[in-house]
Specification:
Radius of gyration: 15 Å
Low-confidence stretches: none
Number of helices: 6
Structural class: mainly alpha
Oligomer: single chain
Mean pLDDT: 92
Distance between the termini: 18 Å
Shape: globular
Helix content: over 70%
Strand content: under 5%
Protein name: Putative membrane protein
Number of domains: 1
Number of strands: 0
């Protein structure tokens, strides 16, 4: 596969991931509400909807070649910014079943490749 085609596919895959995640924030908000750090002001649902809207906006930015550079960089920042919610989830799930704990703990190291992927997409724009 030629480099341009591969970069485009990677950007569209990231846009798809962000878009799907954004939609779930509106379709099934309760699980997201539960992991909003208590230190944030306001209601958890507000943060759930704001982060869902941000993911949808980032998906659009990453999908469009003209905005892909800034979209990728902003997506990397977003993935880093939501890390505290993943830490809270892992902490809250520490007494759950092994399977549920594995999912919660598995999200923590997953943020690193997501950040790197978004940065790579952000740099791939000619």
């Amino acid at each position: 596969m030629e480099p341009t085609r591969s970069r485009s596919w990677s950007a569209l895959a990231l846009a798809g991931l962000l878009g799907a995640a954004g939609v779930t924030h509106f379709a099934k908000p309760k699980p997201y509400d539960a992991i909003v750090p208590r230190a944030l002001p306001g209601k958890p649902r507000t943060w759930t909807y704001l982060s869902g809207a941000a993911e949808l906006a980032l998906a659009a930015a990453v999908a469009v070649p003209r905005t892909r550079g800034v979209g990728g960089k902003l997506a990397a920042g977003f993935f880093a910014a939501v890390f505290p919610a993943n830490v809270k989830m892992a902490y809250d799930y520490r007494t759950k079943s092994r399977r549920v704990k594995a999912i919660a703990y598995g999200r923590l190291p997953l943020q690193v490749p997501l950040v790197l992927w978004a940065l790579r997409v952000g740099r791939s724009t000619p």
